[in-house]
Design goal:
about 15% strand; DNA polymerase, domain 1; 10 helices
Length: about 220
Amino acid sequence: MIRYSVVLLDLDGTLLDTRLDLAASTNHVRQIFGLPALASSDVERLVGHGARVLVERALGAERSAHFDEGVKRFLEHYGEHCVDQTAPYPGMIDLFDSLAPLGVRFAVLTNKPERLTRKILDALGLLPRLAAVVGGDTFPERKPHPRGAQHVLEVCHSTRSEALLAGDSPVDVETALAAKIAFCGVLWGFDPDGLRARGIDVLARDAAELGGIIREGAR
């Protein structure tokens, strides 16, 4: 018996460790506007609401006149370098390999643009393993709006009770609540403190623990 037969995975900080490539593109933009580089740990805290919000936060409100140019430069750079150092987190490939034969379907639900998301997943050989990919621009609404999660359930012909959303940020928590599906926080991602601050009951320390929750539910 499998408790959750549809698993929606956030991308950055959940399925993939993208922090170094995101930091490189963010600092590329900051350099253009004469700003010093940020540590990758600082860039992590800016991620979660899509490229535009990341760039706006990285440049600061006082440079609002340059936001459009900054987003353009960021997307150009990131589009060329998005898989330079990006890789799945330890154990995530094993998770696919062990659970897919048991009928578990995986999908990605992210606020990253869909084109870039698919490019990264394809480069890493993960795209064929996914039942659906929903990016931040797939629909007019993005996380935490439930539209993307609802689309995944429609594609998989599944009910909310069969679905689990795994993510690393409060945005993912809010998405699961809005979609009325179960949530598991992953502590290896970008914002473990934000998850703990939300008082999340179901947390996974590694991919093996996430696999146990998918198979058996929370204990």
